[in-house]
Amino acid sequence: MFAFFYTLGLHLLVFLANIVALFHPKTRKWVEGQRAKSKKQGAKGKGQEAKGKGQRAKKDLAFRGMMPVRESKVFWVHAASLGEFEQGRPVIEAIRAEYPHARIVLSFFSPSGYEIRKDYDQVDEVCYLPVDTPRNVKRFLDSVQPDVALFIKYEFWYNYLHELKKRQIPTFLFSAIFRPNQLFFKPYGGFYRRMLFCFNEILVQNEASKHLLNSVGYASATVAGDTRLDRVVQIAKQAKSYPEIEAFKGTDPLLVIGSAWPDDMEVLIPFLNQWEAPLKVIIAPHEINTEQIQQWQKALKKPSERFTVYGLRFGVDGTPLDILHSPLDILFLDTIGMLASLFRYADFAYVGGAFKDGLHNTMEPAVYGMPIFFGQPYYQKFQEALDLLQLGGATTIATTQEFTTAFTEVYQNLEIRQQKAGSCYDYVQKNAGATAKVMASIRSAF
């Protein structure tokens, strides 16, 4: 009964999304992506059915010793959005390295993931995940024919999970984290609990999550950690150099504000306007919106510029052009893909999102070792944020005054700054290695 109403609700969601798409660009991209995937699957349907029969015949012949077995594994990896993709990227690339002939299909639910990573070269296909209706699920799985299904952090789709279990396809959830207030652990959460038992194994970030799963009878939980730590270690090793940023920073301390939302800037702009000691600042908005950046520039009393404009001061080789310019204190990052590498130049980091939508990736600055700040209260579901607060490497603030007090302390006291930086760096190094544990679980499926 619950499954019927769940599927009915999804049909209603699609209907409403088609209406919202008329006015909302992001929703429109999602709707268009769903339509494109549906047409593609429809076109492949008959051919895939014939191909499936042929493959079954080959397997039968191979079983009887009449022909050699030489087949590639098929991995289906699903990420809700861009953040989950970056979290799962070390696993995808480990699969590609260990199974070079495998076919890897990467699906996204959100346009923010698909649009940015649709050309990702470590997989064979990138697509939107079709809406979780029984018909869509069967068509998708018939088309992909996965040998293993991998879900990153969360995304619990009832029909997909039950069909995967029905087909006896090994299914894993990794870098997962659970909290007591989730529906899985409520007396009335039986519908949601059934989805947990569709996973062959759930690899969680911490012991608390494992304990919660055990409390509802799920015994196949393993504490493996968070693959995001492996990703930031990987990024740090491959971090790009930016002569423009080196020139901008000079010899001054640098504060990098990553994934800034308007709520974050309401707290930070008054601080920046009253701060008098030497300090360079790079601000990376959560969403690149030129109009929003211009509004922030007007609110700031110090000279600022967008990176795409500032970059015109340099030649193609990164060397400064021989022209005069006014001093610059604040730089707005209006490009995609630079932020993770830019933290290498930072002395302090502020990570946005915790005032409203949810804290963004604190591990990106932590891997380089520096004091980290973020807002509140929406950081509680991020284990690494809680750990960094407990270790003293991070500080959470609610007001401009709180940030000013906390920042002044680490700016003026080098010993405290180094202690906080060391706590962040050591945390990442000690807790990396989740990818190897996920790969061990994948091997056990074959």
UniProtKB/TrEMBL annotation:
Segments forming domain 3-deoxy-D-manno-octulosonic-acid transferase N-terminal: 70-230
Chain residue ranges for the region called Disordered: 33-58
Active site per database record: 84 (proton acceptor)
Coiled coil ranges: none
Compositional bias segments (type: Basic and acidic residues): 46-58
A Pfam family annotated for this UniProt entry: Glycos_transf_N
Documented EC number(s): 2.4.99.12
Domain of life assignment: Bacteria
Pathway: Bacterial outer membrane biogenesis; LPS core biosynthesis
Keyword line: Cell membrane, Glycosyltransferase, Lipopolysaccharide biosynthesis, Membrane, Transferase
Reaction catalyzed: lipid IVA (E. coli) + CMP-3-deoxy-beta-D-manno-octulosonate = alpha-Kdo-(2->6)-lipid IVA (E. coli) + CMP + H(+)
GO cellular component, one term: plasma membrane
A biological process term (GO) from this entry: lipid A biosynthetic process
Compartment list: Cell membrane
GO molecular function: Kdo transferase activity
Keyword Cell inner membrane: no
Family the entry assigns: Belongs to the glycosyltransferase group 1 family.
Function field: Involved in lipopolysaccharide (LPS) biosynthesis. Catalyzes the transfer of 3-deoxy-D-manno-octulosonate (Kdo) residue(s) from CMP-Kdo to lipid IV(A), the tetraacyldisaccharide-1,4'-bisphosphate precursor of lipid A.
Protein name, per record: 3-deoxy-D-manno-octulosonic acid transferase
Organism of provenance: Runella defluvii
Classification of source organism: Bacteria, Pseudomonadati, Bacteroidota, Cytophagia, Cytophagales
